[in-house]
Design a protein that fits this description.
The chain has 236 residues and is α/β, with parallel strands linked by helices. It is 32% helix and 21% strand. It has helices at 24-30, 41-50, 79-82, 102-111, 124-132, 149-166, 179-189, 214-219, and strands at residues 5-8, 35-38, 61-64, 87-90, 115-118, 139-144, 169-173, 195-200, 208-213, 229-234. Helix 6 crosses helix 7 (179-189).
């Protein structure tokens, strides 16, 4: 019997953003699947309900690959798939496998010869890049910067130099409660003419996306405390 298909199912980035986060094909797909591998079961079940799941949730098989499960054997996750059943992979928010530990599940699926199908949905990284006005043909996402202030400042300077040298957009993030200190460090470290885009609470009602020079940002800094934010640097 051929193996099933692993569908990569995006999840909304923000509360009350389900309507702009899924497509008719996604709704059709979730109603053909009864087994899921998820980073956060509560988030996953909530989204499935919002997306229009008809199958009773009590009939679903949900495997947890959250942070307390990642060192465990992945074998049980693939029993159904190897027996010919389709399954869905869902992260806590956004697209599975993009800045997300679900990439390990996808890699294992490829090793086992399982077909992988990515579904269309919101990626905060791409949405921020689209809205920044920066180079969308050459860009790098760096994830989290160092917590140590000296190392973080050095890293920001390195990214600024890379942006200028390669005309390449540099994207990075921080834990939301540390956003304001990171912004302070960016404005202190970078040249006044370097452009910075701040993309905050993407797809939420209070979404904020703005591109200015560092000098302009110094005139009025936004409060980013506890708000999911992506920072983008560019200097052509």
């Amino acid at each position: 019997m051929p193996a099933g298909t692993l569908y990569l199912i995006p999840v909304p980035l923000a509360d009350d953003a389900a309507a702009q986060s899924f497509t008719p094909y996604l709704v059709h797909t979730i109603n053909q699947i009864s087994e899921y591998i998820v980073e956060n079961e509560k988030t996953a079940r909530k989204f499935l309900k919002l997306a229009g799941l008809i199958i009773p949730q009590s009939q679903l098989v949900v495997h947890d690959y959250g942070k307390h499960q990642r060192n465990n054997d992945l074998k049980d996750f693939f029993t159904g798939l190897l027996a010919g059943k389709d399954a869905g992979l869902m992260s806590e928010a956004g697209c599975p496998g993009i800045a997300d530990p679900g990439a390990d599940i996808v890699a294992e699926a490829h090793r086992k010869g399982i077909k992988v199908v990515p579904l269309v949905g919101p990626s905060s990284i791409l949405l921020a890049l689209m809205a920044s006005g920066f180079n969308g043909q050459s860009f790098t996402f760096h994830g989290y910067l160092p917590i140590d202030k000296v190392q973080r400042s050095k890293r920001i300077k390195d990214l600024e130099n890379q942006a200028e040298r390669l005309s390449q957009t540099q994207l990075f993030i921080e834990t939301p409660f540390r956003n304001n200190p990171l912004l302070d460090e960016i404005l202190k470290t970078c040249k006044p003419s370097t452009r910075l885009c701040i993309a905050c609470n993407l797809t939420a009602p209070d979404e904020f996306v703005k591109t200015q020079t560092v000098a302009q940002w110094k005139q009025q800094q936004p409060d980013l405390h506890k708000k999911p934010t992506i920072f983008l640097l560019y200097k052509s």
